[in-house]
Amino acid sequence: MNKSLDITDVFFDLDHTLWDFERNSELTYHKIFKNYNLKIHLPDFLKVYVPNNTKLWGLYQLDKISKEELRYQRLKMSFDQIGLSVTDHDIDLLADDYIKHLPSFNHLFKDATNILQYLKPKYNLHIITNGFAEVQEGKLKNSGIAHYFDVIMDSEKAGVKKPNPLIFQKAMDLANAVPKKSIMVGDNYEVDILGAKNVGMHTLYFNPLKPETDGTINQIKGLIQIKNHL
């Protein structure tokens, strides 16, 4: 990316980009399973839960399942796969407690705070997230990064989910930003990168684990590499 581009506003995804979702989720399940005295070998559970959650989130983002179905099914499917019988009532309680306790863990990806400190004096910083409104603000606050961001746009506030163009446009409207001077940083190629490109924004693909997907897309393996682009 040409650093001479006249960028004024940087929009970040939150989960899997700044906020270490998998690590914090694991700690949350360890806590609530202990609270409920569930005898579950956590690595066995996570081995099935993580792909189940990823698959169901994909369906949720396409509006093929509801938020309630996502919360229930990711647990129900995973318990069934490890051979654990849990009542629907208890699954509902666990699902609620998971959402309640998830923001209490606040691990960020390496250099997240450093790069925000670097960017803040130079750019307006914002969040665009498909995460649930009731937990995203808690994540930002408890991890100590909420003050860096001017606009926090979630899918429930927007009424649509990324990659729908409307959520990007609503975030830019609130930020008084325009696409040609805005950049989206995120970990999901289809949702964050293609979604932002489709409305004319610049993009930076945070891709720490996977091989390069598209040579025409600016990619970084670590957040500190944003300095090479902005």
Q: Any chance you could write out the topology, listing elements then pairs?
A:
Elements: E1 9-12, H1 21-35, H2 42-61, H3 67-81, H4 88-101, H5 112-119, E2 124-129, H6 133-142, E3 151-154, H7 155-158, H8 165-175, E4 182-186, H9 189-197, E5 202-206, E6 219-220
Task: Describe this protein's structure.
- Helix 9 (189-197) links the parallel strand 4 and strand 5.
- Helix content is 46%, strand content 11%.
- It has two domains: 9-19 and 107-228, HAD superfamily/HAD-like (Rossmann fold), CATH 3.40.50.1000; 21-104, Orthogonal Bundle (DNA polymerase, domain 1), CATH 1.10.150.
- Strands 3-2-1-4-5-6 form a six-stranded parallel beta sheet, with helices on both faces.
- It has nine helices and six strands, in the order E-H-H-H-H-H-E-H-E-H-H-E-H-E-E.
- Cα shape: elongated
**According to CATH, what is the class of the largest domain?**
Alpha Beta
CATH architecture of the largest domain: 3-Layer(aba) Sandwich
Number of domains: 2
Q: What is the residue-mean pLDDT, rounded to a whole number?
A: 94
Distance between the termini: 8 Å
Order of helices and strands: EHHHHHEHEHHEHEE
Query: Which strand-content bin applies to the residues?
Result: 5-15%
| Total beta-strand segments | 6
Query: Could you estimate the helical fraction of the residues in percent?
Result: 40-55%
Give me the secondary-structure category. Answer: alpha/beta
CATH third-tier fold name of the largest domain: Rossmann fold
CATH superfamily of the largest domain: HAD superfamily/HAD-like
Rg estimate, integer Å? 18 Å
Protein name: 5'-nucleotidase
InterPro entries: HAD-like_sf, HAD-SF_hydro_IA, HAD-SF_hydro_IA_YjjG/PynA, HAD_2, HAD_sf, PGP-like_dom2, Pyrimidine_5'-ntase_YjjG
GO molecular function, one term: 5'-nucleotidase activity
